[in-house]
Amino acid sequence: MNKYSGGAAPITKLRLNPIFRWAGSKRKQLSALESHWNTDFTRYVEPFAGSAALFFHLQPQQALLGDINAGLIEAYDVVRSKPDDLYHAVTSLPKGEDAYYVERDKDPRCLCKFDRAVRFVYLNRHCFNGIFRTNTEGKFNVPYAHSRAGAIPPIEDFRRAALLLARASLKCADFGRILSSVRSGDFVFLDPPYAVASRRVFRQYDKRAFTPRDLVRLSKHLYRIDECGAKFVMTYAQCSEVATHFQRWDRRRIRVRRHVAGFAGARRSAYEVLITNLGEGR
Known about the structure:
Elements (H helix, E strand, L loop, with lengths): L29 H5 L8 E4 L6 H6 L4 E5 L2 H12 L1 H10 L4 H8 L8 H14 L28 H11 L2 E5 L2 H5 L6 E5 L21 H16 L3 E7 L2 H6 L4 E8 L11 E8 L6
Parallel strand pairs: 1-2, 1-4, 2-3, 4-5
Antiparallel strand pairs: 5-7, 6-7
Helix pairs in contact: 3-6, 3-7, 4-6, 4-7
């Protein structure tokens, strides 16, 4: 147990922002999402963790956070076990475009786990829009952000994140493996990448892109989740695929602000769909 784990005693709700920037993060939709949660749920499950904004906001007593991105899950593990060391290592690195590309060009396979986590946090905080993207060889290739990036969260946020992550199991796995472990009493939050045929959307958060075939698998898992007595809330792009794959469930439209456009002035409001089995009578 690390010194920030807090043991088994309940932890007072903490104020912090997610450690990671993440394309598609639900930080702006927390008020619409939190109303579906209550403390009667036995466990919080999130198979597409990303920045885990809802997890850090709700601060459940028990959680399972999963993601297919191995570097992300490994970095969360280091945040949990060595928050101070990680913070000091990241903030000691030089800043600027040249320093960014020096760090980006390092081969993570040649680094130890701790140094890989340092590199992951540094690149995430300094890259363009918090995007995770790799080339065909699996190498991180997101360019440097010349503005609106680079600020490392304060050490208090690393420590608070460690406290909360001590309540969670971390698992690097495909979403299907995470969802196969869902049981009665769980609350599942899903924010999958968007596989939308009608328009181009960012859908790569690992070297493997999310595809329409994954939507078919995801739909089957939602039926199993419902049948086992668990509850889920999912956000997805407003598109024809929602009607095709998720027509059984309660759905409502929510307004969002896109954050992947290249320039802040070009960003505009759009709509997503909130999908759930938490409707009346269920």
